[in-house]
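Per your request, structure below.
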């Protein structure tokens, strides 16, 4: 009776299994098999692309200002040169009117007789004195802006590293470098201001001052942009940041006024020099021709004023459809802000990208199918790999009427056997067991891994070229990392 009980207990324990022993294959590595042809897309390459117009224009603002009118609407057909929007331009209109008066006065002056040489000399001396005073004033104003306003936002303005005290939003290095540059610029400018006289090369000195003032305006503009993008965590309240922005905007207007003064001084020098030349010619009995030059100068000022006015009126350079309009009447826009986008939506192309392996099967002139309906032709293929996407850009010309600018589409190309046979065999780097020379791939025989030696070529992105040891139909394990030949595996279909 005891023997029977022991046998029964033994049978009970020998028949039980751990849960993991019920399916031995569950402990085996799972691998995926493919072929070189399947790796590059099988018999078909399928890519995702975006439709865009061949002829498209982005209309951007050249200066900041308030939008006073918008002349088009979204989706409207427009002609090249048609008005899109207008900024407030009352000052520019006044400048044009003033320049017209100067031009008309110059025309009247050209008809006058002899000009007194003494008066002409006095005019030159007066223009030179104005130029000297304007140059000195430009230094004083700019130096005050830098020292009393800009330097408040640097921990050590005169140090090798000034130390920007606010979040630079990517501009910290530039702003620090720019402030270091002013450590040399301001002393040089100060020396010029202390030594300048009517005998100096005033045209060159005024040009130096204009360049330096414009550089400071650009400096100010960067700070205005930073104030608009600061957060409270940087130690400033919204009211403080808004106050900084208003203050720097006012400083910008002051510097623009300085620029205008320099322009007037420069124009005054030119005008006075022309007057003297005319007087000298007249006094020697020659023909008076300086008046004609003065007319041209006045005309140039008028054209410049008209050009400034034109910067407040935005027109489309191309005919097409208004695909985007970003402003409304009353909006305030900054310089280089997108106003509108106009494109010819009837002439389209598709922008897509391919891997290095797929690129080997494509060439310029190949026919492709867009969304299984429209046809296209590969027009351009980039010679390099994009460092961000690790893919190669491809452009496709299309004529399909069903496509819409901005659409996301599927691009397919059927591959023939001749297409692939003429190309090098490419497989992923993960499929190679690298050795001292060349390497090997793995295939599956039954349930076991088998190593197959191959001769390798060049590496192309994430793929490597196989010169010998396999064909386009050879099956191989897609990822051999952590696997050893002879091991049993489970093949995943």
């Amino acid at each position: 009776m005891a023997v029977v009980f022991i046998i029964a207990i033994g049978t009970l324990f020998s028949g039980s299994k751990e849960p993991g022993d019920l399916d031995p294959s569950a402990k085996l590595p799972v691998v995926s098999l493919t072929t070189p042809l399947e790796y590059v897309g099988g018999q078909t390459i399928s890519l995702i692309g975006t439709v865009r117009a061949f002829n498209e224009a982005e209309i951007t603002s050249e200066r900041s200002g308030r939008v006073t009118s918008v002349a088009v609407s979204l989706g409207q057909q427009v002609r090249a040169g048609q008005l899109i929007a207008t900024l407030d331009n009352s000052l520019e209109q006044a400048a044009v009117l003033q320049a017209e008066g100067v031009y008309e006065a110059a025309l009247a002056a050209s008809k006058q007789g002899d000009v007194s040489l003494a008066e002409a000399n006095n005019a030159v001396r007066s223009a030179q004195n104005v130029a000297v005073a304007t140059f000195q004033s430009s230094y004083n104003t700019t130096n005050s802006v830098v020292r009393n306003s800009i330097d408040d936002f640097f921990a050590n303005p005169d140090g090798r590293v000034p130390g920007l005290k606010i979040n630079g939003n990517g501009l910290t290095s530039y702003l620090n470098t720019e402030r270091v540059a002013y450590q040399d610029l301001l002393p040089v400018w100060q020396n010029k201001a202390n030594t300048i006289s009517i005998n100096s090369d005033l045209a060159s000195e005024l040009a130096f001052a204009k360049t330096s003032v414009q550089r400071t305006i650009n400096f100010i503009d960067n700070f205005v942009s930073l104030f608009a993008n600061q957060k409270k965590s940087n130690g400033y309240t919204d009211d403080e940041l808004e106050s900084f922005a208003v203050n720097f905007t006012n400083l910008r207007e002051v510097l623009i006024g300085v620029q205008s003064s320099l322009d007037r001084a420069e124009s005054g020098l030119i005008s006075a020099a022309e007057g003297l030349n005319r007087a000298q010619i007249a006094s020697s009995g020659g023909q008076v021709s300086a008046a004609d030059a003065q007319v041209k100068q006045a005309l140039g000022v008028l054209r410049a004023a008209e050009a400034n006015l034109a910067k407040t009126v935005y027109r489309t350079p191309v005919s097409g459809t208004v695909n985007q309009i970003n402003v409304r009447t009353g909006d305030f826009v900054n310089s280089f802000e997108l106003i509108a986008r106009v494109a010819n939506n009837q002439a389209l192309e598709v922008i897509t990208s391919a891997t290095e392996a797929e690129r080997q099967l494509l060439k310029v002139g190949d026919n492709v199918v867009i969304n299984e309906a429209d046809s296209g032709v590969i027009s351009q293929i980039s010679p390099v790999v994009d460092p961000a996407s690790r893919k190669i850009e491809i452009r496709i010309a299309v004529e399909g009427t069903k496509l819409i600018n901005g659409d996301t589409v599927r691009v397919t190309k059927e591959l023939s056997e001749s297409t692939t046979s003429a190309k090098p065999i490419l497989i992923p780097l993960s499929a190679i067991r690298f050795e001292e020379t060349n390497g090997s791939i793995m295939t599956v025989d039954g349930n076991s891994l088998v190593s197959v030696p191959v001769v390798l070529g060049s590496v192309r992105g994430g793929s490597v070229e196989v010169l010998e040891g396999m064909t386009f139909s050879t099956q191989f394990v897609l990822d051999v990392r952590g696997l050893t030949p002879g091991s049993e595996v489970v093949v995943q279909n």
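Confidence is low (pLDDT under 50) at residues 1-22, 283-288.

Regards,
D.
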